[in-house]
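Posted in: Structural Biology > Protein-Ligand Complexes

Title: Requesting predicted complex, DQA in pocket

I'd be grateful if someone could produce the 3D structure tokens for the following input. Sequence and ligand are given below.
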Amino acid sequence: MVLILNGPNLNMLGRREPEIYGRTTLEELEELCEAWGAELGLGVVNRQSNYEGQLVEWIQGAEAEDFVGILLNPGALTHYSVALLDAIKSQPLPVVEVHLSNIHAREEFRRHSVTAQAARGIICGFGTLSYRLALLYLAEVLEVG
Ligand code: DQA
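-- Reply #1 --
Done. Output follows.
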């Protein structure tokens, strides 16, 4: 099973700046991820929190919950959360960082990811397809499907 974590404000997807993040709601995105996971032979569990500490605890506990990989969209925490960076480093599972928007084509403060240095890789700029591509990577590296 792969743990999909969406961070702050991603519960507002569909309504939040749709010209940047699209019109797909979080619920729809979660359903898409389940379907894409199923195609790849990956079970997925979707979680979202607006709280940094909750995300830290989910990351810390992922291996004990028997997850084999993590897909993480840290939202704005991407750009400043050393706590999330340390949480990723504290555990052995591969983490793929995902963003709907191309953070490198946006405001200066979004161009740096603090969390990315502990991630296997980053996929950004492809909207909901960023999640699909991350699942494809995880399926390959986890040798399932
Ligand atoms: C985001 C990009 C972040 O800069 C922003 O704070 C978000 C969403 C994305 O998916 O494009 O909340 O992670």
